[in-house]
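Section 4.2 – Deliverable D4.2 (structural model, holo form)

The reporting period included a commitment to supply a predicted holo structure for the target in complex with iron/sulfur cluster. Inputs used:
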Amino acid sequence: MSETIFKVNEKEYILPGNRACQGCGLSLAYRYILKALRENTIVGIPPSCLCVLHGLYPTTSVTVPALNTTFAGNAASAAGMAAGLRALNKTDITVLALSGDGGTYDIGIQSLSGAAERNTDFIFACYDNEAYMNTGTQRSGATPLGALTSTTPILTKQDPKKDFLKIMEAHHIPYLATVSPAYPIDLYDKFVKAKKIRGTRYIQIDTPCPPGWGYPTKDTVRIGQLAVETGLFILFEIEDGRFRFTGRSKTMAERGGKLLPLVGYVERQSRFRKMSMEQLGTLQAWVNGRWEECLKRAEG
Ligand SMILES: Cc1ncc(C[n+]2csc(CCOP(=O)(O)OP(=O)(O)O)c2C)c(N)n1
Ligand code: SF4
Ligand SMILES: [Mg+2]
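Output (structure tokens):
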């Protein structure tokens, strides 16, 4: 994988001025995704912040063709596009279904699972901002334990985040990866690679969100870095069943495997202001356990 910015496509596919919030992690990630996938790409968009970013017809801030789909059906619509392109023998066009965590972990899971089981020839990417942000920060299956949302306003979320990567891995798809806009070269390289692979490729994007997570807009990249440096979000890829660390997580694993304490991540976000010490301990134990599991997998 490249470690240099010099090979990143210089063309911009998101025009200046869109309706996402200042400091939006999705805008940053999407900019690099489109640079990696280039113009021969069609994007499927369910109701979400991505839909807002694209704008209202007849104006748009994005220069690739896009299809607005139903909330539950982004994977099904994208599978239809992939089948149509195959029937027309247009093999050089990439179909990207890009959904939020609500549109992936919750309402979109059945159409995604069906498409992955059929090894549909598309990239499904989930930008995970850990709540239903577009409609006012309601709790989703991706919201972490101990976070305040507008539907868990008093006691915080009492349930752990759904382990969606394990669910997707159980589909035995050819490519599965995690990325963060805080590490754009790693993100870029993985989308370039995914474009060349056939069948279902699933990519999970950790997506810091200033208003939903409660931190200053200038801190998006630092929050994304802290998610990786604490081990809460691990950068890796699984290709034909083989696990490997990438980017910053790879360096951390190679340099003794030390993680920063999780408290440095949660104390910077007001969504965790009512998190109990017990919840922090539970989350820290889960992070430590999964990191150990990954270190063992990388060895084997
Ligand atoms: C069937 C259906 N239920 C609810 C909605 C309302 N709705 C639109 S966007 C959205 C939130 C989407 O959350 P997520 O997928 O996490 O994306 P984000 O808004 O966080 O970008 C909801 C609930 C809808 N459009 N369709
Ligand atoms: S609410 Fe969050 S994800 Fe949505 S546009 Fe704003 S910063 Fe981006
Ligand atoms: Mg969301």
